[in-house]
Amino acid sequence: MEIYTNWLQTNLLAIVAVLLTLILSYHYLMERDTGVKLSKKYRNSIFEAQSKIFLNATQYLISGNRDLAIREFLNAVDLNRETIDTYFALGGLFRSNGEIDKAISIHRSLIARDNISEATRLKSLKELAFDFDKGGFIDKAIETYRDVLKINRDQQDVLYAICRIYEDIEDWDQAYNYRMMLSKISSNNQSETIAHILVQKAKALFEKGDMVRCWEELEEAFKFAPSVSANILWLRLSLANGDMEKAQELLMELINANPMYISFVFVALSEPFSADEKVKNDYNTRLTLLKSFFVKLKDKELTPSPAITLAKVRLLKEENKINEAYQTLNGLVSKGKQLSEVLMVEYIRLLVQLNKTEEALKRTGDFLLNLNKSLTRHFCSQCGYNSDEIFWRCPQCHEWETIQFRWKV
Ligand SMILES: [Zn+2]
User: Fold this and answer.
1) What is the pLDDT of residues 294-315, one digit of tens each?
2) Measured at the alpha carbon of residue 140, what is the angle toward residues 137 and 143, in degrees to the nearest 5?
3) Which helix (H) or strand (E) holds 405?
4) How far, in Å, from the CA of 396 to the mean position of ligand 1?
5) pLDDT (tens digit, 9 = 90+) per residue, 7-43?
6) Options 3.40.720, 1.25.40, 1.10.3720, 1.10.8; which CATH number does 304-373 get?
7) Nearest Cα residue to 232 out of 223, 221, 224
8) How far is the CA of 401 from the centre of ligand 1 (A)?
9) Rounded distance from Cα 90 to ligand 1 centre (Å)
10) Please, which residues have CB less than 5 A from ligand 1, an ion?
């Protein structure tokens, strides 16, 4: 793939040259067959001029002077006003080749022409906006996309592009406005994305301590679609408002839906926000209460999952309840349960902390033995394919000689 891209880059102008020659020759032939407007002498002189330009351009190409070659090509296109599509093709090729300034100058020169149709002008403007976008000129891209939409609102690709930019720069108000516009003309359902954007808006309000408006935006988000992040924010609002019952209910709903969520629920709940010291203190007190509610939950009340066990052990350690954390894991070990690698690391750490040296040594030995087994001798540097065998062509990504040696533990 990489070789192909490099080849394309070095030979792009040569390809363009061939394409242009074909297009212009075609036009010449068509005109020769059907043309009645131009005299034969005039047409022949155009063809001669074009041939000369291509000869020059090809020479510039061979001598490696790409800028002069491009200028010759542009001159050639100028000679034939029928070939606006060639301009677009050339501009598009420059853009995809990363030569943004050249793409921009082509599309600008098109817009500046007075003898083009409105449709062509709109298309040129759109292409120019894509150039700015690809080149990372965000402000100019937004401005130009907006100009396009002023002329014609029914532009899905433009709306998608402007939505993507506003989501990238986290301008959630504008992201929402344009996503709503898109939802009116797109056949794809935008509800989930709109809900995510509204949750982001609500989150920003929560961080500023504006709980009332946060709640309004969140309610709006739920009208479009439910999501994990919306439920976590609802939980945060319940803690801020002192509704412990709702907080516990939401926590249970989240971990029953997927036990893995627990691994980021408490992290998200602990994220900082600005508010009065009193509000923050109350919030943190209630968060601590919610944590101990979770830790005290009986195994029967929960879906068994390593994520739940890990969350419990980490919360207990946070509160310095080392012995209880140890009991949680030891309970599993004595029942003959196989601990996951992360849990085993936590278990060994606890054993060390509790001075259970002999047990710690034994567990560490077993752990390292298993770790050793789980690592292969070789891997592919391209795609990460693992094998103990030697492979000169990776069976997974088909690249040659990407094999790397792994130092075993
Ligand atoms: Zn590979």
Assistant:
1) 988 887 788 778 888 999 999 9
2) 145
3) strand 403-405
4) 5
5) 655 666 666 666 666 666 665 555 555 444 445 555 5
6) 1.25.40
7) 221
8) 9
9) 35
10) 380, 382-383, 385, 394, 396-397
